[in-house]
């Protein structure tokens, strides 16, 4: 950026908005919106919003929790599980939202309201047992939203190119209790050739220049230039083309970005339409929710400017694949699949052990083994198991040893809801002890033995072991927290 441009930057807040960006926006801002209100909203702090994770708690339970804790909430009009949320400054300073019981237990995900739109746009096409791809998934807000919409059924392939972000994605899926996911670590451009017409539905929440995110990140426009918009659009075109190849005929594709420029939005969509002609159709989003038409473009896309709904900027388009297409570059993976089905003996022993201890009678998916590890794979995963190499499939249930299976933490966080016996609801102070790695003291001596699923805010959060006057803590070492959690002093 030139010196003059830096000097001309609008600096009446700490938000960095370069003049050449504003000049560019003026060329495509719709007539009914003013540049002044755009700038004003870019400089306003963003309202915080959360999404209730219905895999862990109901919206009614969430509302009850908010009322008991004096949290002010307002429903997000386009998402039945989304809420803007306000806490007192005193409470927020004393205990950040991320350290509260409802957050640690996976009951909520902090997610910007407009970022809830792409999965909502997919909803009318989504069936619970679908095979779905989330092509650019980390940190996983939309992956977990879709997993909840699928009720943890079917299979959801969540792909991410960056290794560090893939780890965050995996951790978030664990906290949210998602077990229908298979994680992969590729450039999304590979899916069209390796997984040609494999998916019932696809979400491509593309990497983008993030012009819509200045309200959250004051430096989002620091390196802004039209040249970088064009570079990113070239990646987006590769990804959208790959996604369309990977989509089954009759399936729907959501393309979204958190940026505003038509270079990364309308032009990328037009590229898809030009490439695939009669085989692709736009599914208009003007009736997605009341007032959606206020953000709808003439093509039927949603172009959410920050000032329309007082949110971040976002762009969402939906397409349907009408017919099968030819792909001359089909590729197949080499190498053997390292898992096999659990044999009858192991299946029987394991199922009777979890029935006896927890009253769990069946599991949603297939039991698989790799060496001594026992895994639960998502339903229908076998249909796509040999197509690509996955980083992680479903959840690890435990490790076999000579007397049975030693259960994993994830068994409890993802499947604990199925338990009818041996669950224990932690109080807030017991839960604080649990997350700090301490054992849980019981008021009276118990005669119960074996493992117990611990719950918080009604959601399963981990395992412990009954031991007379205490529950022995089984929280994995790497999840132990040293900061203040759950309790705060008023
Ligand atoms: N969908 C995510 C969510 O809701 O939490 C946000 C996704 S973010 C907008 C885009 C992601 O794409 C980033 O995590 C980035 O690392 C990843 N990415 C960048 N290039 C990619 C590529 N070629 N293939 C797949 N993912 C890519």
UniProtKB/TrEMBL annotation:
Name the Pfam families on file: Methyltr_RsmB-F (PF01189), Methyltr_RsmF_N (PF17125), Methyltranf_PUA (PF13636), YebU_pre-PUA_dom (PF21150)
Domain SAM-dependent MTase RsmB/NOP-type residues, every copy: 38-322
- Protein's UniProt keywords contain Calcium: no
Q: Name one GO cellular component term.
A: cytoplasm
Residues annotated to bind S-adenosyl-L-methionine: 136-142, 160, 187, 205
One Gene Ontology biological process: rRNA base methylation
EC numbers for this chain: 2.1.1.178
Q: List locations, semicolon-separated.
A: Cytoplasm
**Function (record text):** Specifically methylates the cytosine at position 1407 (m5C1407) of 16S rRNA.
Kindly indicate whether the keyword rRNA processing belongs to this entry: yes
- Catalytic activity from the UniProt record: cytidine(1407) in 16S rRNA + S-adenosyl-L-methionine = 5-methylcytidine(1407) in 16S rRNA + S-adenosyl-L-homocysteine + H(+)
> What name is this protein filed under?
Ribosomal RNA small subunit methyltransferase F
Q: Which GO terms describe its molecular function?
A: RNA binding; rRNA (cytosine-C5-)-methyltransferase activity
Q: Which organism is it from?
A: Pseudoalteromonas phenolica
What keywords are annotated for this sequence in UniProt? Answer: Cytoplasm, Methyltransferase, RNA-binding, rRNA processing, S-adenosyl-L-methionine, Transferase
**Catalytic machinery residues:** 258 (nucleophile)
Q: What InterPro entries does the record tag this protein with?
A: Methyltr_RsmF_N (IPR031341), MeTrfase_RsmB-F_NOP2_cat (IPR049560), MeTrfase_RsmB-F_NOP2_dom (IPR001678), Nol1_Nop2_Fmu_2 (IPR027391), Nop2p (IPR011023), RCMT (IPR023267), rRNA_ssu_MeTfrase_F (IPR023545), SAM-dependent_MTases_sf (IPR029063)
Q: Which residues form a coiled coil?
A: none
- Family statement drawn from the similarity comment of this UniProt entry: Belongs to the class I-like SAM-binding methyltransferase superfamily. RsmB/NOP family.
Q: Assign the protein's first listed, main location to one coarse class.
A: cytoplasm
């Amino acid at each position: 950026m030139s010196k003059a441009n830096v000097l001309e930057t609008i600096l009446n807040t700490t938000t960095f908005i370069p003049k050449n960006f504003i000049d560019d926006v003026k060329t495509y801002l719709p007539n009914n919106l003013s540049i002044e209100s755009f700038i004003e909203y870019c400089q306003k702090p963003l309202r915080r919003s959360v999404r209730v994770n219905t895999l862990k708690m109901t919206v009614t339970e969430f509302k009850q929790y908010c009322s008991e804790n004096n949290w002010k909430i307002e429903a997000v009009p386009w998402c039945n599980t989304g809420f803007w949320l306000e806490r007192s400054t005193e409470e927020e300073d004393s205990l950040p939202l991320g350290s509260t019981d409802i957050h640690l237990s996976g009951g909520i995900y902090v997610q910007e309201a407009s970022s809830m739109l792409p999965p909502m746009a997919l909803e009318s096409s989504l069936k619970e047992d679908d095979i779905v791809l989330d092509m650019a998934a980390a940190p996983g807000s939309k992956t977990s939203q879709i997993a909840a919409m699928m009720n943890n059924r079917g299979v959801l392939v969540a792909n991410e190119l960056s290794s560090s972000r893939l780890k965050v994605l995996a951790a978030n899926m664990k906290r949210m209790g998602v077990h229908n996911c298979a994680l992969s670590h590729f450039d999304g451009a590979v899916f069209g050739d390796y997984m040609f017409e494999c998916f019932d539905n696809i979400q491509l929440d593309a990497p983008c220049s993030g012009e819509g995110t200045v309200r959250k990140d004051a430096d989002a426009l620091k390196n802004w230039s039209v040249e970088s918009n064009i570079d990113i659009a070239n990646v987006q075109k590769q990804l959208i083309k790959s996604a369309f190849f990977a989509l089954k005929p009759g399936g729907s594709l959501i393309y979204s970005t958190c940026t505003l420029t038509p270079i990364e939005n309308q032009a990328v969509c037009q590229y898809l339409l030009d490439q695939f002609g009669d085989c692709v159709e736009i599914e208009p989003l003007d009736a997605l929710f009341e007032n959606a038409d206020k953000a709808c473009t003439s093509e039927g896309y949603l172009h959410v400017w920050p000032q329309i709904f007082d949110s971040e900027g976002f762009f969402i388009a939906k397409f349907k694949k009408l017919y099968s297409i030819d792909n001359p570059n089909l590729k197949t993976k080499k190498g053997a699949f390292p898992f096999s089905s659990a044999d009858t003996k192991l299946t029987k022993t394991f199922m009777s052990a979890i029935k006896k201890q927890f009253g769990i009678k069946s599991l949603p998916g297939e039991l698989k083994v790799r060496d001594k590890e026992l895994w639960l794979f998502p339903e229908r995963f076998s249909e796509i198991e040999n197509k690509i190499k996955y980083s992680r499939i479903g959840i690890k249930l435990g490790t076999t040893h000579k007397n049975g299976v030693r259960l994993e933490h994830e068994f409890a966080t993802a499947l604990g809801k199925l338990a009818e016996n041996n669950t224990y609801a932690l109080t807030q102070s017991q839960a604080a002890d649990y997350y700090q790695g301490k054992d849980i003291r019981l008021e009276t001596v118990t005669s119960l033995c074996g493992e117990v699923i611990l719950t918080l805010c009604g959601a399963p959060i981990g395992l412990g072991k009954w031991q007379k006057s205490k529950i022995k803590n089984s929280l994995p070492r790497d999840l132990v927290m040293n900061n203040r959690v759950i309790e705060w002093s008023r």
